[in-house]
């Protein structure tokens, strides 16, 4: 009995701690996001620059995470359980959470790849069809693919709703396709989570290598002071 009470109390403290940390970070994050949006609104030239369009889309997605999905997590940690404890709530909660998260990951990976083009071959964006194929379409796929994928595997996937854990955050991540379909679960983890992270890390590292290599090939000294800002941003 004492062990159960200790477990319950520890879980309560953990939830309250997570609630406090998330809330403490959410407020300044929302304020900073609004300030960035105001900055872009008042500076149309900067807003319309090719290298900033994708960043604005990413900021919008992140802001939606802050204002839509994060409050759902805060609500869980404040209550200590899922409320309302229904199949429909858990289904849509995981759908929204997974969609925004993977969309953000794909956008970051795409931006990292496109940065190579913007740095070394920016002239290709002057060609309309190249700009559409290499810049606009990849960003559009980043926004549509995660939504369609999770709509089919979460919303439309046949499920009786008995697998949800109403005492865990995100209902225990117990979507039917993760619980009963190992193929879909593996594809989701590898393609929608692992792949974007690998692409993001590799593309950013390669960009630094290419910048250094180009300077050496042009017999120009590598001034790390000038590259410090880019390196920090990529990190």
From TrEMBL:
GO terms for cellular component: membrane. The chain crosses the membrane at residues 20-41, 53-72, 92-111, 132-157, 194-212. It is found in: Membrane. InterPro entries: GPCR_Rhodpsn_7TM (IPR017452). Keywords: Membrane, Transmembrane, Transmembrane helix. Residues 32-235 form the G-protein coupled receptors family 1 profile domain. Its main location: membrane. SUPFAM superfamilies: Family A G protein-coupled receptor-like (SSF81321). Coiled coil: none annotated. This is G-protein coupled receptors family 1 profile domain-containing protein. It comes from Adineta ricciae (Rotifer).
């Amino acid at each position: 009995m004492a062990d159960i009470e200790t477990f319950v109390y520890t879980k309560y403290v953990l939830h309250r701690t997570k609630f406090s940390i998330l809330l403490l970070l959410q407020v300044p994050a929302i304020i900073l996001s609004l300030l960035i949006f105001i900055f872009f609104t008042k500076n149309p030239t900067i807003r319309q620059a090719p290298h900033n369009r994708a960043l604005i889309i990413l900021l919008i997605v992140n802001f939606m995470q802050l204002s839509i999905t994060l409050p759902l997590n805060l609500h869980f940690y404040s209550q200590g359980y899922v409320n309302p404890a229904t199949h429909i709530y858990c289904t849509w909660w995981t759908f929204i959470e997974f969609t925004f998260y993977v969309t953000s990951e794909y956008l970051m990976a795409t931006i990292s790849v496109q940065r190579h083009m913007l740095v070394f071959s920016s002239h290709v964006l002057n060609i309309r069809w190249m700009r559409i194929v290499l810049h606009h379409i990849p960003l559009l796929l980043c926004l549509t693919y995660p939504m369609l994928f999770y709509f089919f595997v979460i919303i439309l996937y046949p499920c009786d709703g008995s697998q949800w854990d109403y005492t865990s955050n995100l209902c225990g991540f117990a979507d039917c396709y993760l619980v009963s379909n190992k193929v879909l679960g593996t594809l989701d983890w590898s393609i929608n989570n692992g792949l974007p992270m690998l692409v993001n890390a590799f593309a950013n590292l390669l960009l630094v290598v290419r910048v250094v290599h180009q300077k050496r090939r042009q017999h120009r000294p590598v001034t790390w002071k000038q590259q410090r800002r880019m390196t920090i941003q990529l990190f």
